[in-house]
Amino acid sequence: MLSGIPLFPEQASTLASEVDNLYFFVTAVTAFFALLVVVLVIIFAVKYRDPTGEKVGAPITGSIPLELGWSIIPFFISMAIFGWATIVFFHLVRAPDQTLEVYSTGKRWMWRFQHIDGQSEINQLHVPLGRPVKVIFTSEDVLHSLYMPAFRVKADAIPGRYSSVWFTPTKVGEYHLFCAEYCGTKHSGMIGSVVVMEPNDYQTWLSGGGGMSMAARGEQLFQQLGCVGCHLKDGSGRGPSLAGKYGVQETLASGATVTIDDTYIRESILTPQMKLVAGYGPVMPTFQGLVNEQGLMSLIEFIKSLPPSGQPAAAQASAAAPAAAPAQGGPR
Amino acid sequence: MTTTVLPRVTYVNVRHSVASWLLTKDHKRIGILYLIVVSIAFLLGGIFAVGVRIELTTPQGDFVSADTYNRLFTMHGVFMVFFVLVPVVPAVLGNFAMPLMIGAKDVAFPRINLLSWYVFVTGFLFTLTAMVTGGVDTGWTFYTPYSSSASNSNVMLTGVGVFITGFSSILTGLNFMVTIHRMRAPGLTWFRLPLFVWAIYATSLVMILATPVIAITVGMMALERALGFGIFDPRLGGDPVLFQHLFWFYSHPAVYIMILPPMGVISEVIACFSRKNIFGYSFVAFSSLAIAVFGFLVWAHHLFVSGISPYSAMVFSFLSFAVAIPSAVKTFNWTATLYQGAIWWRAPMMWVFGFLGLFLVGGLTGLFLASLGLDVHLHDTYFVVAHFHYIMVGGAIMGYFAGLHYWWPKMTGKMFSNSMAMLAALLVFVGFNLTFFPQFILGYLGMPRRYHAYSEEFQVLNVLSSAGASILAVGYSLIAAYLLYSLWRGEEAGANPWKATGLEWQIESPPPPDNFAVTPIVNEGAYEYSKREIKVV
Fold this sequence. Notes:
The structure holds 2 protein chains of 2 kinds. By secondary structure, chain A is α+β, with helices and mostly antiparallel strands.
């Protein structure tokens, strides 16, 4: 690629052009002001040049209208940029309701991607064309940052929390995937590629792996770790029922409310005493060290798949149902 | 009757022993002591930068190993930020010139002034030890949990060095504030003060209020590293993002510690070489204070993709746009100052022109990063690297050189070669743009920062950047050469070679040990150039 100097990155997501339009606008505005000042400085420097150093300048001390003008006009222009940029930002961070979810963990120095149907891959992420994809990720050690320039998305991977990015790919192809937060020796080797495929090719690729779906693996863990003994479906156990709870607001023993999301489920497994649901005693032991990041993600996916109690559990244990993802709606 | 003419007694020749320098309480000598240490740090930081640029001429990591590369950019950042950019203008030029500019015989606390130099040197020596015993690889930002739990390099020693150096800033800030409040010459009211003094005052405020936070933050990081306190590492129950909040609560205001004093220099030099009042004096003065205050409220714009809530990101984005306005006001006022001036093209003024061009680009590209929708893509890419180099090197270092050239005849009594100095300014300006402008494009293309090896399509722009860096290196070496040469062979400068108005130009060069034989009385503003003669261009 030494033939020419590239100036703009490829646009491969629905939001890429939105980001680029904003970029061109800000570039135009700032270039105008830069040129204005540079041209004025050059004109004044040449026109009023005094080679002798003996003369003196005109006794001008200032002008209130000018001061107000060059404070207020830039302020309004910058507010216009602020407004536009904030709108674009909310498009970038607010994923639509229906997304294809992929879980990921970063650790020095690789990215592991876990598809909910069971496929997993290292430093490569396969996604279908035209469908919104949401990557939910965390880090197993230090900070990392998942960056896909062609989609204009980035978010830090933070140990102990979940972050996410979402995008809808618009072009088949292979794109860069970088770690953007410095993480030590092979930071610049913590790279990979996103492969955008035609939906049919993607289905073929997905079914090639086999294995157990994340929800099924989560259910298995739910049994093995003994969670099932207390979190009874009908709510009669020592712990609250988890059926249909994902995305719901709960009142805590402290009186505060919390939305049951990925991070809350994770916290409740690792530090269960911290945010107890009202009406339940502090009886749950910690599972720190007993379940790894992948296990936690599977448990979360299992809890997400549970329908409200009374309805049949359709999604669970469907190990070989590759196209199940879009059917699982609900607030994510 | 025969008389021998004794050489005039100046602060330089009043005593000659090394001890007389190391135990001096004279603010001018302390300024020179800082100049020496800061120049050494600048040289070291520059050498590290050369290593980085050589590595990046090829996409493969083939010049040094990944671990060495990580140490190179970290040590470059640590030396340049903590030992060059923060002290360079306040401690070198501020120490030398500020008391002279207000008509004082010294700073308020001369012994504390010397102490702050020793504290600075102690911190420098710790960091130097960390460097020669293997270096540090965390990046100058020391982000946790990498720094507290993972890195195998000399984090502790460097942290101690940065911690100690912070106290030097605090002491200097305190000293300058008291000096400016209490020791102005009779008649030198606040609104007659030179704008450099206003800038030093605003900077001192930031130094006193922000620096303790970095000391505490680095201290907590060290406690976690050494004793396993769970403050930042989630495995120990901590929160890694908390570190970023605390770190930037200092380090964003620190950007203003770096840029405000050079802005003050620009106001002095531009007024002198335009032979005019500064346009909008009070707006320039108050914009320094506005920047100092608002600078404390924008730290989280470094955390837009670090998992803060979108609404708090909105607030910090808004405030970041707001802080851009006072900087814009200053730039417009400087430009307007040139209008109908009598502009004398001498070397210090060339550095001002360079400053204006580069600071403009640096400031305007800040708007891209304050824009939430763009920062998601640009964060932690070369766009950020280019932006802050335009501010810190293009702005702060150009401003420092403007000031160093402006006050050099006062400091040394000698004149440097004007044509050489103009050539150096041109080389630095061209070299700088060639080095850093391609990095904006690299950043938008998506090249992440702190990469030892990179994808092939980024090579052409990286080669351009490295080529620019070599021009920059020639420019900086040239400055060192002709300034040192002037000490030996320079013409006598005389008291006021630039025909400037400030009080510091009314005494001989170099100044006598006690500055003013008679305390000056001030009865007009700082820049009454146009009153001096009737003839107007």
